[in-house]
Design brief:
The chain has 731 residues and is of the alpha+beta class. Among the domains are: 166 residues, Jelly Rolls, CATH 2.60.120; 135 residues, Galactose-binding domain-like (Jelly Rolls). The strands form 7 sheets. Strands 1-2-3-32-33-34-36-37 form an 8-stranded parallel beta barrel, surrounded by 5 helices.
Length: 731
């Protein structure tokens, strides 16, 4: 499948908050209690954090920090702190798909390019986060790419046999009198028809009691109309005596369904053509649908003879697009809507409805309404089309209503009218399942408002061609290439370390192979399935191979690609998520072409005051490093931050910490860094990123109010700074 897609101009997609302290607001100042001034004075003797890295023993190690890209670009309050203490920065959100790709697919790399430029100027590297993930994707755009195709063509199918009434087939035509059931209609002799040939001839009875005592039926034996079907009906007709007879919708001949159908026939002694173009509405559909038109012919007190010829009944077959389903329409040729309020009136003048309000009051105090026979469908988008002008300039409001308490059932946009005719098409979704009234409200306009050609309808899809799984995969492969190539162009080779895929592994093994499955919309909550886009559902379990291939195709030759995930240090499953991730990496690399350079472990951890729990956490951090070292791959702690949980299981906030708490957290940081340098060989030590250098503010969506940083919110060093620095130095 080939794709032609023009990237549109700059569109900004506002950054979405993820589980990322880096993109939270860190400007709010909150007073914490890290201990007395005297107890913290020793921290003044510490140098910048990155100075404690022994570069000769750790030649590839990079000390990183999570940042808010916009703050860094503007050289905000923490710009200097970041540059003085770290080698590398990671943007919390700015380099993610949803922050760049708009609803129409246009990609705005403006922030990314400014971020790269600012980092270059500061001489600091960037860790790219992230090329492929299921969260923070522009799901609307991606799903539109692979939605089913609607074909735009349409055709009309003739439902009547023997249209010209020249053959002997009368299965479409029946007639009845009050004393008989439906019987095949009679075909007249040559000369009775419109074209000099034959015609249907129906004789009405004498002295009828009801206009339906004699009826002529046109039916389609092998077709049933449903609500929303678009049809056309045409027929030549005349009578020996002038008469006027209405039509009805029936199921089978004689099975009444709906009174008004294709209009009234006004018979004269001369041939005329009757044409009707319309839609089947829900009331006409009824329980059985529509397949018959009945014409009432007992409309005179004496007998009459009726002639019908060239009868056509067609249904529109639309393999694509959408079909309007009319729920109400009025051309105001003779009948206005009802209404009330402020002595307002409604009348028909020159084929339009005129609503007149004698004085200006509140807009809702003069209204015109139509009540639907059945409630509208909640959640369905309805369209309102009408023409309007006024005796002056004003505003007209329109919407649906629940008549039980007069509350709104969905409002259309208001329109401004003037003394010239204007046509509007509006739309709104019905907000409740019991809305039955449509309203015009105009009480705040003193004067006359003219309304014409009113339609209320919803749309149903026509024919649909579903994309095959192969077509969807091909389309999404193109979209992924478009994204990765665009990002690599925007970063211009400066970003040499990337999370090629973020958080691919779930926490459940449903196929019994002994390893956790990859995430899918089939194994997540309803909320996650609604919000996220799971590429693997369309590209298969080996979708990471494509991302790696594209990154290497468009990125710099010396780029390093990582698979990043969380809970790899988990003690509750004995590091099984890490074991599963290693299994998946081995599978992806088994094709002999895919190369994944490293594993990233997020490590959003807490210190536990319960000694047994804390001992288990520490043991499994050690085990994690051992398992990662055994892979021979680069190892990076990508998003390290820390909270603290007391013995009751309560997560403590910054203002609740004692001196002891701070010391314990400091020791824990020291433990983690010591074990990292002790267990991970130097050739695999890619680095550590501190996700929250500064404590998280209470307003943050990520660990709000927790003591996550090495600096307090007023950027003062904490005890954790010492533990972290000593860990870097091997003390």
């Amino acid at each position: 499948m080939k794709h032609t897609f023009k990237i549109l101009g700059a569109f900004i997609f506002l950054s979405m908050f993820a589980a990322s302290c880096a993109d939270d607001d860190i400007e709010n100042i909150a007073v914490d209690k890290p201990g007395s001034v005297a107890e913290l004075e020793y921290l003044n003797d510490y140098d910048a954090l990155k100075s404690y890295v022994d570069r000769s023993s750790n030649p590839i190690f990079k000390l990183g920090a999570g940042v808010t890209a916009s703050d860094y670009i503007q050289k905000g309050s923490n710009y200097r702190l970041i540059n003085e203490n770290f080698d590398m920065i990671t943007a919390g959100n700015a380099m993610k798909y949803a922050s760049v790709v708009g609803d129409n697919g246009a990609m705005n790399f403006g922030t990314v390019m400014q971020f790269v430029s600012a980092a270059k100027e500061a001489g600091i590297e960037i860790y790219g986060h992230t090329l492929l993930w299921h969260a923070q994707q522009n799901k609307k755009y991606l799903e539109n790419l692979i939605k089913d195709k609607i074909i735009a063509e349409k055709s009309w199918r003739e439902l009547i046999t023997n249209n010209d009434i020249e053959g002997a087939d009368v299965k479409n035509f029946y007639s009845t009198e009050v004393t008989d059931g439906p019987k095949p209609a009679t075909i007249g002799e040559e000369g009775t028809g419109y074209n000099g040939g034959k015609a249907i001839v129906v004789q009405s009875g004498d002295a009828p009691e009801n206009e339906w005592d004699t009826q002529f039926f046109v039916t389609v034996p092998d077709f049933i109309f449903k609500a929303g079907d678009h049809f056309k009906f045409s027929m030549k007709y005349r009578a020996e005596k002038p008469a006027s007879g209405p039509s009805q919708a029936h199921f089978e001949p004689g099975q009444y369904n709906h009174y008004s159908f294709v209009g009234t026939l006004n018979f004269t002694t001369e041939w005329q053509t009757h044409e009707f173009d319309g839609y089947i509405d829900a009331a006409q559909e009824g329980e059985n649908g529509v397949k018959t038109i009945a014409f009432n012919l007992a409309v005179l007190p004496e007998t009459n003879t009726y002639y019908f010829d060239d009868i056509s009944w067609q249904v529109e077959e639309v393999p694509g697009g959408s079909i309007p389903v009319i729920v109400y329409e009025n051309d105001f040729s003779n009948t206005p809507l009802g209404g009330w309020g402020n002595n307002s009136t409604r009348e028909i003048v020159d084929g339009a409805m005129v609503m007149t309000n004698p004085s200006a009051v509140n807009f809702w105090e003069a209204q015109t309404a139509y009540d639907f026979p059945t409630p509208l469908t909640e959640g369905t988008v309805y369209f309102l089309k009408f023409k309007v002008k006024g005796s002056g300039e004003g505003t007209l409001r329109q919407g649906f209503q629940f008549t039980g308490d007069y509350s709104s059932g969905g409002d259309f946009a208001s329109v401004n009218f003037n003394t010239e005719w204007q046509e509007f098409t509006l739309q709104t979704a019905v907000t409740r399942n019991d809305a039955t009234r449509f309203l015009f409200s105009f009480g705040d306009f003193a004067g006359s408002i003219y309304i014409d050609d009113l339609q209320i309808y919803y749309e149903k899809p026509g024919g649909i061609i579903e994309l095959t799984p192969e077509e969807k995969a091909d389309t999404l492969s193109w979209a992924l290439e478009n994204w990765i190539s665009g990002m690599m162009t925007a970063t211009d080779g400066y970003v040499k370390h990337w999370d090629v895929v973020n958080e691919p592994v779930s926490g459940a093994d449903t196929d019994g192979d002994g390893f956790y499955d990859l995430w899918s919309k089939e194994n997540v909550s309803e909320t996650d399935a609604t919000n996220n886009f799971y590429w693997g559902d369309y590209l298969g379990d080996d979708y990471v191979r494509l991302a790696v291939k594209l990154a290497r195709q468009y990125g710099p030759a010396d780029m390093k690609l990582f698979v990043n995930d969380y809970n790899l240090e988990s003690d509750w499953d004995d590091n099984h998520k890490l074991k599963s991730l290693i299994h998946w990496i081995e599978r992806w690399e088994s094709d002999g072409e895919t190369v994944i350079d490293g594993i990233g472990t997020q490590m959003h951890i807490s210190y536990y005051m319960d000694p047994a729990i804390q001992a288990s956490k520490e043991a499994h951090i050690v085990k994690m490093f051992e398992l990662m070292a055994e892979t021979g791959k680069l190892v990076r702690i990508t998003e390290l931050d820390m909270g603290i949980v007391d013995a009751t299981g309560t997560t403590l906030k910054s203002g609740e910490l004692t001196e002891q708490h701070h010391r314990l957290m400091s020791n824990y940081y020291n433990f983690i860094l010591t074990k990292y340098f002790e267990i991970i060989p130097a050739s695999q030590r890619a680095g550590i990123t501190l996700w929250c250098p500064i404590d998280s503010p209470a307003s943050s969506s990520w660990r709000g109010g927790e003591p996550t940083g090495l600096w307090s919110q007023n950027t003062k060093r904490k005890h954790t700074y010492a533990g972290f620095a000593d860990g870097l130095a091997g003390k």
